[in-house]
C-alpha cells in the first residue's frame, strides 16, 4: 500500500464513492418533471459533466463526492484513488477542467 494507508481507510473511500454514485444515478434516473428545484440543478450539473468518453459509464467528479458524502477530497483521498487505479477499480478520465472517476 502507498504510505501509511490502512485497509479500513481504503474501504471507507470505496464505500463513499459507491454512495456518491448511487445517489447521483438515483437522481439521473428519475423523470425530470418529478424533481424539485435543487435536485433539478444537480441533474443539469450531472449532464454538463458528461462527455463522449464518459458516455455509458458510471462516474463521479470531486464535487459529487463532496455533495453526497462526508469524505474530504485531500491528499489522502488522492493517494487512495491512486491505489484503486493500480488495482483497476477506478479509471480517470480528464477533460474540460474536471477529473471523472469511472467505476470499473
What order do the helices and strands come in, and which of them pair?
Layout: H1 7-28, H2 37-49, E1 59-60, H3 62-68, H4 75-86, E2 90-95, E3 98-103
Antiparallel strand pairs: 1-3, 2-3
Helix pairs in contact: 1-3
Number of helices: 4
CATH class: Mainly Alpha
The helix/strand series, from N terminus to C terminus, equals: HHEHHEE
**Largest β sheet strand count, sense and barrel closure:** 3 strands, antiparallel
Just name the CATH architecture.
Orthogonal Bundle
Radius of gyration of CA atoms, rounded to a whole number: 14 Å
Ends distance: 20 Å
Helix/strand class: alpha+beta
Beta-strand portion reads: 5-15%
Say which CATH homologous superfamily is assigned: Ska1 microtubule binding domain-like
- Kindly state the percentage of residues in helix: 40-55%
Rough outline: globular
Spans of at least 5 consecutive residues with low confidence: none
- Please indicate the count of domains: 1
Question: Taking strands numbered 1, 2, ... along the chain, how are they ordered across the largest sheet?
Answer: 1-3-2
Describe this structure in words.
It is a single chain. This protein has a single domain, classed as Orthogonal Bundle (Arc Repressor Mutant, subunit A). Helix content is 52%, strand content 13%. It contains four helices and three strands; from the N terminus they run ααβααββ. The protein has helices at residues 7-28, 37-49, 62-68, 75-86, and strands spanning 59-60, 90-95, 98-103. Strands 1-3-2 form a three-stranded antiparallel β-sheet. α1 packs across α3. It is globular and about 45 Å long.
